[in-house]
Write a structure and sequence with these properties.
Length: 287
């Protein structure tokens, strides 16, 4: 049985499989023929998609797609295992690709091969690395590359209001892409203010929670991270409103704000704009 994250990655690639395989290989002659099972005995593949592809030069082969939210230093060995298992299972040569979505800490070096030597014996596995923050948003929208539309805000040059509007327009121009709007909002929240995203997309956290994408993201802990990020942004916005209206905020009120849930923060945003005093606002705070 496929993992939820597998379903999400496959859904992305299946939107435009030929455009995807040509992009990851850099070869316009490559064609996708089938999305294959990425499950292997003994080892669970949680974010991989295998595409059977072909080209005039290389005939039939596999493209192994590993999508990672952030690079893991165990990835070289994982990619080595991935290639060996896939080639054994399908008896075809493999072209492995690692797609990193968000940049790792500056102290982490992203490797593009597995290279080890033990007792005079060497093992090596090369793989292509694509870092989405180095991919130009403008090119993705122009080509176009539908599977990458949700990532536009975190692509190179994509973290602006105009690029978000362009991505939204691209998604809404094709009914098959509408389901990706929550994912676009998710990545937009990394670089843009939540109120701006809501204004452009008419989106809120409820929409994200109700989408199948949220449940898929939830499996790897990413949804909690984005909800915590939105929660922190809401706390900051609420405190800014109170400071603008009533000058300084007592420490005890700030402490109580830190303990509020996202739903409570959203409700209190409107309250902060309508109350006449801090005392009146305090009366609305949960005990």
């Amino acid at each position: 049985m496929a993992k939820p994250v597998d379903i999400g990655s496959k859904r992305l690639i299946s939107l435009a499989p030929n455009a995807w395989v040509q992009w990851v290989t850099g070869n316009p002659q490559v064609r996708a023929s089938q999305l294959l099972d990425a499950e292997f005995q003994w080892i669970s593949r949680e974010s991989d998609v295998i595409v059977k592809a072909s080209s005039p030069q290389h005939k039939e082969f596999l493209i192994l797609n590993e999508l990672q939210l952030r690079y893991d230093q165990k990835m070289p060995q994982r990619m080595r295992n991935y290639v060996a298992l896939a080639e054994e299972k399908y008896n075809l040569s493999a072209y492995p690709v690692l797609i990193n979505i968000l940049p790792p800490p500056t102290t982490v070096t992203i490797e593009n091969c597995y290279d080890r030597e033990f007792m005079g014996l060497k093992a090596r596995q090369d793989y292509r690395v694509i870092n989405l923050w180095e991919v130009e948003a403008e090119l993705v929208l122009e080509q176009p590359l539908p599977p990458l539309f949700p990532f536009v805000p975190i692509l190179f040059g994509g973290g602006s209001e105009s690029k978000l509007r362009s991505a939204v327009q691209a998604l809404r121009a094709d009914q098959t892409l509408n389901q990706l709007e929550p994912l676009l909002a998710f990545f937009a929240s990394f670089v843009l203010e939540i109120p701006l995203i809501q204004q452009i997309m008419r989106w809120d956290m409820t929409v994200l929670r109700e989408s199948p994408w949220y449940q898929e993201i939830l499996q790897e802990g990413v949804a909690q991270g984005i909800e915590q990020g939105i929660q922190q942004e809401r706390r900051g916005s609420l405190e800014r409103i109170l400071k603008l209206r009533f000058s300084e905020i007592p420490v005890e009120i700030s402490v109580r704000i830190q303990a509020l849930t996202l739903e409570q923060l959203e409700e209190l945003m409107a309250t902060a704009l309508t109350v006449n005093s801090l005392d009146e606002f305090t009366q609305h705070l949960p005990n």
